[in-house]
Design brief:
Largest sheet of chain B: 4 strands, parallel
Largest interface: A-B, 57 and 60 residues
Number of strands of chain A: 0
Helix content of chain A: 55-70%
Shape of chain B: globular
Order of helices and strands of chain A: HHHHHHHHHH
Number of strands of chain B: 10
Strand order of the largest sheet of chain B: 4-3-5-6
Radius of gyration of chain B: 21 Å
Number of helices of chain A: 10
Oligomer: heterodimer
Strand content of chain B: 5-15%
Structural class of chain B: alpha/beta
Strand content of chain A: under 5%
Number of helices of chain B: 21
């Protein structure tokens, strides 16, 4: 029989420290690997356009890949993929916002004019619409991520490009993210036994954080570099 | 030959590794890749190559190798990559804007080709190109003395060869040996503009682009150095070329390869012609009747940065100019890049055929491009499909419409 109390304590005491250590080692190994290849200065003719503008454009009007290039053949993957990432970012930003807001509100010497307004019925003293996050964005995220996992499964059974591109770790990263999100959702809406679900959520989330720097989930960080570099490239070439 | 090899990743840097490790294997790149669309071969998908490349790197420089030490690579693995997907690619770079993260695959494939080349596992057809480049300074195994054969048709008095001049016309191998009409049209235009110009003459070597397709970066560097030395010895201030591949090499790759900027102004003929139009030197006689469309060569638009210039010229020439759906930065490949005609003729033909199919949707009388590789691919695809679209290079069209 699982002792949920002990497990819950473990997930809040020792596990976060293990998680942090594994995460930091992973990040350090990645950085060491990248830097072992060096970052040589590339000599090019002067850029045709401003690199800053190139970067901004690649993060704004060129953010979504063109439909004809990336969406026309498989529209479901395209639309669902975009929706999943928007939902994921909204959840992360919402969580960060909430954490920051809570910290600010806890400051004893905070002048009243800096205090955030309280939303009636929202159950938390911040301006963020938590209900939207819980009852719309999170289900959207879970369903779209679920579709993407099923999409990979479907093409692995049916055949097609995704089958050739699937490696073993693909069956860990997305399902782990989905499971941690799903248990978190169940805990927030108080579905089922609260303590075991919350414990499961804490463990899965920390496993996810540990796994992040060792897996393809690293794209959540490198995307900022890669898209910025491509924006630079477009600016240098003037296209 | 040993069955296990140790790879040197000297053509790989931190930027490229980060690009490579950002791939999530979502398969979006499969949709934008002309080679995959033509073959439906899974190993043609850019991400497939990325997976294999990453496995190679991780085998020697990954987390486990950091703990257990470097592990050697079975030679058969390199052979498989070479035979399967690596060369099922025209290096057109269309996967980059098609990727949700904008991973810069082009540089990755160049690195991987270089690694495979160093272990001598590149395809036999590319070995033939290497030999031809080494011995004859062109990829077509053609006699170097034949490089200037097109001048005889034009009349030797109409083209200075290897003389000091402000402007040098770099013809390029494909225009010299295969699409000679582009070379003679460019010469005609330069003469009409009273330009102080000369050809490189017998000292013109290949620009080095096929070397990069083969994976031989050292040779590409050697050819770049040679061509720059010749340009310098002839006192040139600027280079004009009609080939998109040569343009990209001169303008963008030579400084990268040689790690220094040169002082030459590099112009593609479309830039030169636009300059002449603006200054009033170039006067077009009559507008061309009939519908005309323009195919952006990948190496000129997406990989070269020239999009508006050819359009400005064509709008001055054509009475009925229409755009293709796949244009500018998102242009489709003609199939001719990375010496694909020599490496995989079937792939070359299929991609060219697909582009002609796209062109037919706007029903033009003329298909204009600005690269000899595109002209060649489309002319052949036209013949195969029985299409009546007239394929011309932009310089040929301008030479035809010039006011006397």
């Amino acid at each position: 029989m699982v002792d949920w109390t002990q497990l819950f304590d473990f997930s809040r005491t020792a596990l976060p420290q293990i998680t942090l250590a594994v995460f930091i080692i992973g990040v350090a190994l990645r950085l060491a690997k990248w830097s072992s290849f060096g970052f040589p200065r590339v000599i090019r003719p002067p850029a045709k356009k401003s690199r800053l503008i190139g970067m901004i454009k690649n993060w704004s009007i060129n953010l979504v890949p063109p439909w004809d290039l990336a969406g026309r053949v498989e529209p479901v993957g395209y639309v669902v993929g975009i929706a999943m990432h928007i939902a994921c970012i909204a959840i992360l930003l919402g969580a960060i916002h909430e954490a920051v807001a809570m910290r600010i509100l806890e400051l004893p010497s905070l002048p009243p004019q800096f205090r955030l307004p309280i939303i009636p019925d929202a159950n938390i003293p911040t301006a963020f619409p938590r209900r939207t996050l819980t009852y719309f964005v999170t289900p959207l995220f879970l369903s779209t991520l679920g579709i993407l996992i099923l999409r990979r499964l479907y093409y692995n059974l049916k055949g097609g490009p995704l089958k050739a591109l699937t490696v073993k770790s693909d069956w860990v990263a997305a399902p782990l993210l989905w499971a941690s999100g799903f248990t978190g959702f169940l805990a927030v809406i108080s579905f089922g036994p609260y303590a075991p679900i919350l414990t499961l959520h804490l463990i899965l989330t920390q496993l996810f954080v540990m796994y992040l720097p060792y897996s393809k989930l690293i794209h959540s960080a490198t995307v900022f570099l890669v898209r910025t570099w491509f924006g630079f490239r477009r600016a240098i070439y003037g296209v | 030959m040993t069955d296990e090899v140790v790879l040197s990743f000297e053509t790989l840097d931190g930027y490229r590794i980060i690009n490579m490790e950002t791939c999530t294997r979502c398969a979006a790149c499969a949709q934008s890749c002309p080679a995959y669309a033509a073959t439906k071969d899974d190993s043609a998908i850019p991400a497939w190559k990325g997976i294999e490349f990453r496995k190679l790197v991780n085998r020697q420089r990954g987390f486990l190798s950091a703990l257990l030490g470097h592990r050697s690579i079975p030679r058969q693995w390199l052979r498989d990559i070479s035979e399967k997907g690596l060369y099922l690619c025209t290096l057109c770079g269309r996967c980059m804007p098609g990727c949700v993260f904008n991973i810069q695959n082009l540089e990755l494939w160049e690195s991987l080709r270089s690694i495979i080349f160093k272990k001598n596992e590149h395809p036999p057809s590319l070995k033939g190109i290497s030999t031809s480049l080494e011995q004859k300074k062109n990829p077509y195994d053609s006699d170097p003395d034949e490089r200037l054969a097109w001048v005889n048709e034009l009349g030797p008095a109409n083209a200075k060869m290897g003389e000091r001049a402000q402007t040098l016309y770099y013809v390029g191998c494909t225009s010299s040996y295969q699409e000679k009409g582009i070379a003679s049209s460019t010469s005609t235009v330069l003469n009409k503009m009273n330009e102080d110009w000369s050809l490189f003459g017998r000292d013109e070597w290949c620009c080095g682009d096929p070397h990069l397709a083969v994976g031989d970066q050292d040779k590409a560097r050697e050819f770049a150095r040679h061509n720059l030395e010749i340009a310098s010895s002839l006192g040139a201030k600027r280079i004009v070329t009609g080939c998109a591949h040569c343009y990209r090499m001169w303008k963008w790759r030579y400084p990268e390869l040689l790690d220094r900027r040169h002082n030459l102004e590099i112009l593609h003929t479309t830039e030169y012609l636009q300059e002449c139009l603006k200054s009033g030197k170039l006067k077009i006689d009559t507008k061309l009747p009939g519908k005309l469309t323009y195919h952006d060569p990948c190496y000129l638009s997406r990989l070269g940065g020239i999009v508006s210039e050819p359009r400005n010229i064509l709008c001055n020439i054509a009475s009925n100019y229409v755009e293709l759906k796949e244009k500018a930065f998102d242009t489709y490949c003609c199939g001719g890049g990375a010496m694909t005609e020599a490496v995989n003729r079937e792939l070359w033909a299929k991609i060219g055929g697909e582009r002609i199919r796209q062109v037919k949707m706007v029903n033009p009388e003329f298909l204009i491009s600005a690269c000899p590789f595109c002209r060649r691919s489309f002319t052949q695809a036209n013949q195969r499909t029985g299409s009546h679209i007239q394929v011309l290079d932009i310089t040929e069209l301008v030479a035809r419409q010039l006011k006397d």
